[in-house]
Amino acid sequence: MVASEPDLLPYSEFFTEEHHAIREAIRDFATREIAPKAHAVDQEARFPIETFKELGKLGYLGLPIGAEYGGAGADYRSYVIAVEEIGRACGSTGLSYAAHVSLGSNPIYLFGNEEQKKKYLPKLTSGEHIGCWALTEPGTGSDASSQKTTARREGDHYVLNGTKQFITNATDADTAIIMAMTDKSKGSKGISCFVVEKDTPGFYVSKVEKKLGMRGSPTASLTFEDCKVPVENMLGAEGEGYKQALMTLGGGRLSIGALALGIAQACVDASITYAKQREAFGQPIGKFQMIQSFLADMVTEVAAARLMLYHAAYLKDHHKSVILEGSQAKLYASEVASRVANLCVQIHGGYGYIVDFPAERFLRDAKLCEIGEGTSEIQRLVIARQLGL
After folding, report:
1. Residue 52 in contact with residue 130, Cβ under 8 Å?
2. Position 142 confidence tier, pLDDT thresholds 50, 70, 90
3. CA 83 to CA 68: how far, in whole Å?
4. Confidence of residue 235 (pLDDT cuts 50, 70, 90)
């Protein structure tokens, strides 16, 4: 145990004994079952489905979902703890975990009717099914209101046509939550949300991406060609999709902030260990002031990011708006992760540049956190708007 460990920080206002117990249990699982596979998962670009089956059995896939639907009924702080600890062990697994819970499951819990919740959530919380959420399209990116995918009502079905891009978990998802334009004349108020099952005719994975980092978390495009989706698969009412998407992204930003925090903490852990073991000029490199300066900056920035993130999660648990705080936490944690990962490579020197050490993977994985769930530039825009600008 070192001074950078998160549970040594003074969080009496943020965490209860139950939160500490959850962290300890998830950390134990992640250390034993996830971390040893992280290198292979990355190098083989393999989605660790067996890990998700175990996470489901242990109840972690349904942490923020009500017990009546197979979840744990825990608060958002518990979920953020889980993302941080899983991301600390393996960025790829942490990303897919966050996408499954906050994007692939939580919208059904928040916006679905009772029949939809009973139909889909027990399978998602148990790990029997994997979920994904599809908003981004080619040419739209951060402009979520410009949906080109359409959904045309025909009797008791909607017919979907279009393509979604950069969808996490797409290759392995059993259910996909899709945003589509039902009334173009209404702009963002004409967007609706649908649950589409993987075997639906006209729905298929069209391109699997090869990525810089997070390689074990599959990213792919989804294509719809006259895909008929039952009317009862719409989440909420017609035209509510964009509002639902913004609410989903609000929670998702905390997820990515937690993932970034986990990666950053892993960088700190690896750097301290290496600084104590690697010797140069007759002493451990951790004795050199420059290395000490790097480590001091790393642990300080990670501690600040953690406080911002859990403050936002605390507010969310107390039903406060976290538009500002969530964007701030996501922005800061993701940029801290990249800075800390870069210093981690620098501390490792030549070893930081080869795959035998995890430092290079941390650097590759961290970058996505500045892009996913709204880029750093979008977060700054959101923050500025909250200032009345």
Report:
1. yes
2. low
3. 23
4. very high
* Residue 264, H or E segment: helix 241-277
Distance CA 94, CA 88 (A): 8
Q: Which two tokens stand for residue 287?
A: 């004795």
Q: How far apart are CA 303 and CA 333, in angstroms?
A: 10
Q: How confident is the model at residue 139 (pLDDT cuts 50, 70, 90)?
A: confident
Domains along the chain with CATH numbers: 6-126 (1.10.540.10), 131-239 (2.40.110.10), 243-386 (1.20.140.10)
pLDDT (0 to 100) of residue 11: 52
- pLDDT surpassing 90 at residue 82: yes
DSSP per residue over 320-357, as a string?
---HHHHHHHHHHHHHHHHHHHHHHHHHHGGGGGSTTS
Asked whether the predicted pLDDT for residue 179 surpasses 50, the reply is yes
Please count the residues of the chain: 389
Token readout for 169 is 């978990």
For residues 56 and 97, the answer to whether their CB atoms sit within 8 Å is: no
Catalytic residues: 373
